[in-house]
Amino acid sequence: MKGKWERLVYIDLFSGSGYASIRGIDRIVQTSPLIALNTPNPFTDFFFSEFESPKMESLKARVNDCYPNRDITYYEGDTNENVLKICEDLEHIHSKYKTLCFCFVDPFSLNLHFDTIKKLSVFNIDFLILLAIHMDYNRNLSLYLSEENEKVSHFLGNTNWREDLKKSPDKQNIVSFLATQYDKKMLNLGYLTPVDKQQIKTGLTNIPLYHLAFYSRHKLGNDFFLKVRHHGESMQLNLF
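C-alpha cells predicted for Three-Cys-motif partner protein TcmP (240 residues):
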C-alpha cells in the first residue's frame, strides 16, 4: 500500500490508555494506539476514541511524549456517539485526498452498535473487530434474552434477533449464532466473508473471550490479513 494512497488513516474506537497489564502474569504491554503509531510504514492520520477520561488523558500524555508531531485527533466519550464527528473528519480527508482507512475495534463488551460500523463503512475502510460475544454474552445470557433488553439488538442492528435465533440451526449455540449473524450484516454492507476467523482464549485458563474477525471489501485485503496473521501468530498468542 506504500505510495499508492495519499492518506492512510488509523481509527481506534476503544483506544484505552496505550498500555495494559496482562491478568495473571507480571507484564505490561503496549496496546493498539501506541503499536499503530510505531509501524514501520506509518499511517498519516490517527483517530482515537475512548470513553473513560482518565484513560484518554493517559493516552494523550504518552503520545505527546513519544510522538509529539503526529496528526492525531481524540474523541472522548461513547464511541457510538462519537462516530458522527469521526465521520465528519473522515469526510474532510476523503474530499481532498485518495484515502485508505483501517479501523480497529476492541470493546470489552457488546457495547458496539452495528449502526456505528455501518456509518463508518461508507468510507474506504477495512475493519478488524474483536467480537466480545463469549465474554459478555455468556455472563449476561438471561439478561440479554429479556425482551426489554436492547443490547444485542444494537450490537446486531436487528430488533428481531430473538425470532431469528428460534429459527436458526445455531439456536442451541448462541455464540455461534451471533458470530454468523454479524458476518451476514457485514456481507450486506458489501464486505467479504472474513478469512481465518479466530477464537481468542485466555492464556491461563483457556476460556474463550472473543472472535477476531477482519472485514474487507477486497480479496487483496483478505490476502494481506492472512500474511500478517501468520507472520505475527506467535506474538499474538503471547499477547493474549
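The two ends are 28 Å apart (CA to CA).
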